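We treat protein structure as text, and this decision shapes the records that our systems exchange. The tokens are whole numbers drawn from a learned vocabulary of local backbone shapes. Below, we set out a record of this kind in full and without editing:
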Amino acid sequence: MWIAILKKQVDDKGPKQVAKELAVSRSTVDLVCQGKYQASTKKIEAKIKAIYGHNGKIPCPVLEEITPARCVETWQRAKKIGMMAGNPETLKLYKTCINCPVRNS
């Protein structure tokens, strides 16, 4: 089932965008889709289920339901800004993103 979800996402968005949303390399996405991935697929399976398993939305404790693309952009921005955030909302988002079970799985 998770492979079908991955293939649908790749068909809809392309492997480059899916790789970005999953925080893996494009070659990993390609190899998994082709059934040629040599390593264990448990981590990638968990990421796919966490990121795409809720009708294509990610439950975010700060931003509510967001798209995988917005999630990865927010997560990357939070990592970049870090504790230097002056805005309390941005700081809250940073602290939540750093401990995110979806991105850190």
Summary: The helical segments are 2-13, 15-22, 26-34, 42-52, 68-81, 88-98. The chain is about 60% helix and 5% strand. The chain has a mean pLDDT of 87. Strands lie at 58-60, 64-66.
